[in-house]
Amino acid sequence: MSSPDIISVPTTAAQFGLSEPEFDLVVGHLGRQPNALEAAMFGALWSEHCGYKNSKPLLARLPTEGAAVLQGPGENAGVVDLGDGDALAFKMESHNHPSAVEPFQGAATGVGGILRDVFAMGARPFAVLDSLRFGPLESDRSRYLLAGVVEGIAHYGNAIGVPTVGGEIHFHDCYRDNPLVNVMALGLMKAKDMKTGTVGAPGNVLIYVGSKTGRDGLGGAVFASADLSDSSDADRPAVQVGDPFMEKLLLEACLEAVREGLVVGIQDMGAAGLTSSVAEMAHRAGQGVDFQVGQVPTREPNMGAAEVMLSESQERMVLVISPERLGEVLELLARWELDAVEVGKVADHGRFKLYRDGTLLADLPVAALNDPPTYTRTGIESTQVRRQRETPVDPPQDPDLATSLLLLMASPTIASKRAVFQQFDHQVMTNTVVLPGVADAAVLRLKGTTKAVAATIDCNARFVYLDPEEGAKHAVAEAARNLVCVGATPLGVTDNLNFGNPNRADVYYQLERAIDGLRQACIALGTPVTGGNVSLYNQYRADEGLRAIHPTPTVGMVGLLRDVTRRATMPFKRGGDIVFLVGENTEELGASEYLAAVHGREIGRPPRIDLATERAVQDAVRSLIEDGVCDTAHDCSEGGLAVALAEMAIGGDRGAEIALSGGSRPEAQLFGEAPSRIVIAVSPGPARVVSEYLELAGVAYRRLGVVTGSSLRITAGAVGLNVELTTLRERYEYPIREALS
């Protein structure tokens, strides 16, 4: 046995991220006390980040099957059918805690990790989207984190040659200590080439390929499964360091091996490194593995077995090869100048056995490693949140609607993100049809076909905070609405559930109710969940101690356009176009950005969403776009109808004259955030056809006005606003641009 390998019996369970009852379960599975290496491996795989022990029983409620689903949860990424033998792999994951400690590397390695999940399915990554959350933009720390995260995403994506095509950025005080960095990747493939993470049959060979293993990333899974604290800077070793150029070699080599039919199974070394990748692959096949720790390439001397097995060094994959193809695979990998060595063999004993120089260091049952205890808790709503939700929403009548609109346009959550996405290469690979900031969803062509893929990420965390179930429904509905606004049919969802400490009754309540909301909306809108990620223990320091972030169940959704030439974008395109609102403009200000940005209050009940109405509005607008009648569409979300109109006017550099009538509160008509509303603009000729179609569809609508002039003029009864586009644009562009300057 080499001297770095410490295999003595551990003194405490806590040092391995296990509770005392969990440690007792480990003893029961082994029939003996684990040594330190074995306890560390159990601790990593039974961590929240790997084992989902608090969320797995709740996640089982989500719908996961659908006509388009080729691969649901349980693999590296979900896969949906695009027709004609084409398929799309997609997945979203978080790198929240690492980005709080080291924003550049935390975000960069978040991109690298999710790309590996996609090409592990046999798909070529062709797009990245990100959902980012930070504290108030006035804070120096928030600006530091924003700049570092954006630079990290740009560095990795631009270097590897995968475009960053969309996303969202929100700002709120609850994220000031614990930012959220959720990254979603999409990959194209032929359905017949889809690969899974399995070891296959006994006798197959495990190949380690990619970067050498170092001490960076040690304890990452456990680090991501605990609260951030004042001492978290000491956890910098749990933040990995990425190398996009190595990943490019790895990507091309793995895809070539898949194309040549040389690979039985393939898996990324993500959280918990070799331990999770090998254990998961063995478990899926119902097999065991004899693993040679000493064969793993290392870049630092005297690395112990636990360090090797739990390192989360980046750009590493496990390939499983049948013995007769081993020579071909090693030759292929050598051509790509990659470290590639045989590190294990598949065995039928169902154990994960680790050896070094003939000495058995660990002997663990594969099934037990992959079967952490799960917990079903009792959730109780926070009385503070209930009070906030039930507080009457009755702000004084707004004396200056124009000033309020300008305040909203300058709110960092609403303001233009141009200064961010200009740092990303969003046209590499030449598939990007709709550029960032131009539409509610990204659109990417499928070369050689008439088809295109649309993708979006969305979540209004304030809605979820004030009403978790209703807010989660809104997240799914808005994501689907975003896809519909470019003309796409939604196909499936990947989600990233960002919550606080699940041991707290109020946080567990949020998690449980939000998942119920996701379930209802996904069923109603026909968007099954194909996979995702759960990120818990996201908290911040307050006077009364640690508080949970706003619950943020981020929804990533993909859709299909059958004809890429029949699509819509946000900007007004022609003077004289007729502007319609599809959906009911109800006067609801609860939980709105208007209350927060203008009145400094986070109160009220989020608007109720009728999912049948939502589906009808979406179907109607998508049909108009698919029929070539409408090429301008934008949904109403944060900031309401007035902000949606302002964004369309700014994007097209064309003003509009809009008239609203029949309401009692102009500010609610303009800035309320009622769901199921889409603004469209059509040429005067088809306007009558649009009205007739919407009447037949039984969908509420109203004709708002006309595209004209150089200002946005809105009248609401006896009051209104009139703001020049130059003023709107300056307020809209300034906040993020200034923060990154």
Structure description:
The protein is of the alpha+beta class and 741 residues long. The strands form five sheets. A seven-stranded mixed sheet has the order 8-10-7-11-9-12-13. A seven-stranded mixed sheet has the order 23-25-22-26-24-27-28, with helices on both faces. A six-stranded mixed sheet has the order 1-2-3-6-4-5. Helix 19 (505-525) links the parallel strand 17 and strand 18 (529-535). The longest helix has 21 residues, at 140-160. The N and C termini lie far apart (55 Å). The relative contact order is 0.13.
Strand order across the largest sheet = 8-10-7-11-9-12-13
Would you report the number of β strands?
28
Work out the helicity level.
25-40%
> What's the end-to-end separation, in Å?
55 Å
User: What amount of the residues lies in strands?
Assistant: 15-25%
**Mean pLDDT metric:** 94
**Tally of separate helices:** 25
Shape: globular
Reported for the largest beta sheet, the result is:
7 strands, mixed
Question: Which parts are unreliable, with pLDDT below 50 for 5 consecutive residues or more?
Answer: 222-226, 230-236
Structural class: alpha+beta
List descriptors.
single chain; 741 residues; alpha+beta; seven-stranded mixed beta sheet; 25 helices
Short account of what is shown:
The chain is an alpha+beta fold and 741 residues long. It contains 25 helices and 28 strands. A 7-stranded mixed β-sheet has the order 8-10-7-11-9-12-13.
